[in-house]
Amino acid sequence: MGIRLSGCVIHGDKRGRKLGFPTANLSIAPGVELPPDGVYSCIVWLPGQTTHHGATASVGNNPTFDDVKERRVEIYIHDFDGTLYGHELNICLLTRLRDMRRFSGLDDLTGQTERDVAQSRAMLAHHALTGLLP
């Protein structure tokens, strides 16, 4: 797949943090074409680092929450604990894991997010073993 995006990390609604999956919300420049809504396995380059980190990305308007009207790009960086507000992130979406969908509640959303992250980790490990990662 290999869709590259970049954007400045901005404050979001902090819902991911409350669910145990803090995300970096990217402000994407106007006119940049986003990929179809969904959940993706991806890699991200953090400021000042030359190596990449595995991540799981959400592209869309978070249909579980009725107050989100605009499409968003939210990145959960695996095994990362830090603050990135105001920093530019570069990401590469590698594999589309599933469609964006509405969940019946936060428990269902959290359970699916856990499965998404596990699947993303597995995809990234496969890409690393087969030499598909940079």
UniProtKB/TrEMBL annotation:
Class of the enzyme per the UniProt entry, highest EC level: transferase
GO biological-process terms attached to the record: FMN biosynthetic process; riboflavin biosynthetic process
EC number of the protein: 2.7.1.26
GO molecular function: ATP binding; riboflavin kinase activity
Keyword Zinc: no
InterPro entries membership: Riboflavin_kinase (IPR023468), Riboflavin_kinase_bac/euk (IPR015865), Riboflavin_kinase_dom_sf (IPR023465)
Domain of life, source organism: Bacteria
Residue stretches making up the Riboflavin kinase domain: 4-125
Record field: catalytic activity: riboflavin + ATP = FMN + ADP + H(+)
Pfam families: Flavokinase
Protein name: riboflavin kinase
Source organism of this protein record: Devosia riboflavina
